[in-house]
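Q: My labmate handed me this sequence with no annotations at all. I'd like to see what the chain might look like in three dimensions before we decide whether it's worth expressing. Could you predict it?
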Amino acid sequence: MQSTSHFLKRLAFYFGLVSGILPAAVHQARADALTGLSRPSANIPAAWPSQSTAADYVLITDYGAIGDGNIANAGVNTTAMNTALATGKTVKIPYTAAGFHFGTNQITVGSGQIIEGESQVLLKSTATTSLFRMTGFELTSGISNVSIDMTGSGASSTAIRFGTNSAVPVYRVRLSKIKFSHCVEAIGDEAHATNYVVDIIIDDCMAWQTRGRQIYNRRSRGFFLIRSTNVDFTSDPATVTWEGIRLEDYAGLELERVDVVGWGLGPRVYNPAIRSIVLNNGIALWLTRVFADSVIGDGIFINNTQFVFSLTTESSLSLGIGIILSNVEKGVFTNTMINGSNGIPGAAAGAGGLYVENCRDNIFTNTYAFNCTGAGIYVTTGSVRNTFMNNSVNANGFGLALQGNAATTKFIGGSMNGNTTAVANGSSGAGNMIRDMTGYNPVGAASVTTGGSPWTYTAGISPETVYFSASTGVSAVTRGGVSILPAALGANVPFTAVLSPGESIVVTYTGTLSAKKLVQ
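A: Here is what I predict for the chain of 520 residues:
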């Protein structure tokens, strides 16, 4: 028996020998025979050969799907899709201008099942539940390169729904290059008590002409990425009265180049319940170039979250507070921008830029807040050990407001120029400090009210230099119980003490004591 190698050499020689005498059609037939491909039929795009000869995908049209956009063909199209998915191969949907209608039918996409459209081919649905229900587990499943129009769908419908009511969690789903329109909800999950979604990627998607909150996931337990995705309210025919994105109960959530933009075409009236982006109850959150624009409520709300890495986050022209952080701890926030809505009809009075409550152990660097109807930065009840560095605030009221019992809050460097009042300190908490803040620290001395000997003086939230003298003399000055007076002072001889924020001195004197201070 001849070896395989010898046989292939003889075959190559034979085809080379006859290549000069065979007509072109025979040459093509010979090439097709060697590659296992037949020529595409006239009604199939040349780029996608028919499924009967392709090794790695099938076409929905090979199973009877009709791309005329007619709801009368919804049953045929649904059967074709289900049959194609059952092959285990990638299902491709060729482009037609009218698209494919699936009516009220729901299509389940299970483990390893993938749907790919051509040129964002249109898929229509009037579902009462969802057009696609993703139940994949272990093997990657996904949908890409389609447009989904849910005009006429039910009030509780979703374009793509994670089937968390199934027996196992939903795992390894990829959604990319999808355009959603007229959706009550574009991407969502089922309300299950314990099941969750994990290892989900939503990439290069857009939702517009909305009918409700567009992305809502109740339970994500890790590796949930939303990237290059936009919820656009600007073309909605009326004022949008729903959130853009809400993600809850997460572990390992990343938003990268995510926008929620606009409020619709109706009048703007402040509604505190309407927010662009809500991130609630999670661990490990990464934000990179996240933007909330022109919502009728607050811009971005992050609640009950640990380990936050925010690299570039912006809220602009929200009628309410720009960014709210509540019960956030162990976070690093860098390059945060808040553009308020001062002067815009419907803006809430006293709406701040960055609002921080019950937050602990966070570092804020390069925060810029301007044009707010309230303080640029609020730090209030329950907030401790938060540090702000190199921040710039140019609001229309207070630059910085310390309230409630906020404690050990440190503001170092930056600018408070252009505010009606640079700092309003109403906090009862200890250890707060403000230093090296342009536009806040007064120039020159300010009078100090003294008390009877021994007199105790405590510096405020910024470093201070205190100047004092007594009409008869000063016999002792102590700081922390340690004397800082080298020798007793005679009548009207001045003494200077440099104090850190919150530091105290005790002065023992006779006669009348006078004092002034310089805030550093």
